[in-house]
Amino acid sequence: MKNRISEVLTKFADRCDYLEVHIEDTEESRVGFTGNRISELGRRVDFGGNVRALYKGGWGFASFNSLDRIDEFAGHAVDQARIVGHGTSQLAPVEPVIADVALDVKNDPRDVSLADKVAMMRAYNEQVLGFHDEIITSSLLYFDRYRRFWFGSSEGAMVYQERVDIGGRVTPVASRGEGSQSYSASFGGSNDFNVARGNEAGVEEACRVALGKLDAPKVKAGEYAVVVDPRLGGVFIHEAFGHLSEGDNVYENKNLREVMVLGRKFGKPFLNVHDTGLDKGYRGYLVYDDEGVPTEKTYLIREGELVGRLHSRETAGKMGERPTGSARLIDYRHPPVPRMRNTVIENGDSTFDDMIAGIDLGIYAISASGGQTNGEMFTFTAADAYMIRNGKLAEQVRDVMLTGNVFTTLDSIDAIGNDLACHDGGGGCGKAGQFPLPVTHGSPHVRIQNVVIGGE
User: Which of 6, 151, 269, 346 has the fewest CB atoms within 10 Å of its CB?
Assistant: First the structure.
């Protein structure tokens, strides 16, 4: 494969400023249940690649499924670039990498039969459906992917990588009368099939929470002090702030460039946020990104100040900054763009009890069941929530919707816990038509003042 890539690069590189070839081979297993029936079951293989060419600032891109036609599609990519290129190519310089990254797993999902994976998920499903007669149905999904990647560039890079991605979720749906409620237990990882095993306690909790929400009153709308758990804190920092830190989003949006100025204060001195690809075992782990650039730990906020962002080689070059190993593609059908890996709010020094003790009336918001962002504005719906009264957790409530401006919210964080937890689930990140990209996010418990809560 490397020889074939080298042949293409040699043949076409002199017709453009930069050329790269990406080839991948994928094996995937999936198991799904809806209620008491199997809704998805199978194994598939996928093979393909792409060629990306840069000429005078213009990109050409072509994907293919057959190595027999790679020269043809490489020619298409170069021709496209030469048609649209009328400026200056700007790629931040990197040292070309030559490396092989073999798979390093504790328990390989390929060693587990599809029948055993079905049996595992069936047992979770039976646990859900047998938990209570008001749990009327369920939704479950398991998947694993083994992928081999080859990458070569006209600058001399040649990288081979193997990766595994594992994920899943178990969602009970409880119903009474015309109302229904749900809650999910999820799992994921990149090096151990055992993340999918032994989740019975999480499934039981999901059942209990879904049932509890049937009786929970709607929260009263208003402005509250809110403590978010590590899952919701991670979703917040990923969705509301992380995407604003991706180099293409900043470069292409004049208004955002004026806001996301390095050195600007966004929070208290104890607020630190980073994005990393170095956390082995998480779904966001990778050794080299899809431009052959080594991954790293990139600080976005340090001591409350904006200090960095996530770059591809092109966005780094255009903004006069450095690549961060953040150029990622979901598969060979797409070009790489700046994406997150594992986005984390770092530990503070508060305990959970200390955080709620200072609240007379507030909300403890847990995980997220949905949400959206629009520039600086966000809306997230907590998957579960409880009132805080006189410094103590009180009754369960539902339909808790957190709304606000991300920068105002970051500045309103007045306590950060010492209990950082990163979470992997069965979903992924979406951007530029590429979904679901495997990512991770994490946070300690975080207390935020003056949060607008939509409700009754």
Answer: 269
Q: How far apart are CA 403 and CA 400, in angstroms?
A: 10
Q: Residue 365 carries which DSSP code?
A: E
> What is the radius of gyration, based on Cα positions, of the chain?
23
Out of 170, 194, 215, a domain closes at 215
The confidence score (pLDDT) of residue 178 equals 85
Average pLDDT value for residue range 213-217: 97
Kindly give the interhelix angle for 2-12 and 70-84, rounded to the nearest 10 degrees: 40
Read off the CATH number of the domain in which 19 is found: 3.30.2290.10
DSSP H/E element including 79: helix 70-84
Pair 308, 445 in one domain: yes
In 3-state terms, the chain is what percent helix, strand and coil (to 5)?
A: 25, 45, 30
Which of the four pLDDT bands, split at 50, 70 and 90, describes residue 300? very high
Say if CB 58 and CB 84 are below 8 A apart: yes
Q: Are residues 209 and 325 in the same domain?
A: no
**Residues making up the chain, counted from first to last:** 456
pLDDT value of position 52: 98
Please, which residues bridge with residue 371 across strands? Answer: 380
Planar angle of CA 276, 281, 287, nearest 5 degrees: 50
Distance CA 61, CA 175 (A): 49
Q: How far apart are CA 154 and CA 159, in angstroms?
A: 13
Tracing tokens 């020619």 back to the chain, one arrives at 75
The DSSP line for 139-204 is EEEEEEEEEEEEEEETTS-EEEEEEEEEEEEEEEEEEETTEEEE--EEEEESSBGGGGSS-HHHHH
Report the run of H or E that residue 387 belongs to, with start and end: strand 377-389
**Distance (Å, whole) CA 224 – CA 389:** 11
Same domain, 161 and 241: no
Three-state DSSP class for residue 370: strand
Q: Which of 193, 215, 237 is the last residue of a domain?
A: 215
Residue 421 and residue 305 in one domain: yes
The verdict on 184 and 226 lying in the same domain is: no
Do 114 and 147 belong together in one domain?
yes
Domain that includes residue 116, residue range? 2-215
Using the predicted structure, report yes or no on whether residue 144 has a pLDDT greater than 90.
Answer: yes
pLDDT higher than threshold 90 for residue 455: no
Asked if 183 and 229 sit in the same domain, the reply is no
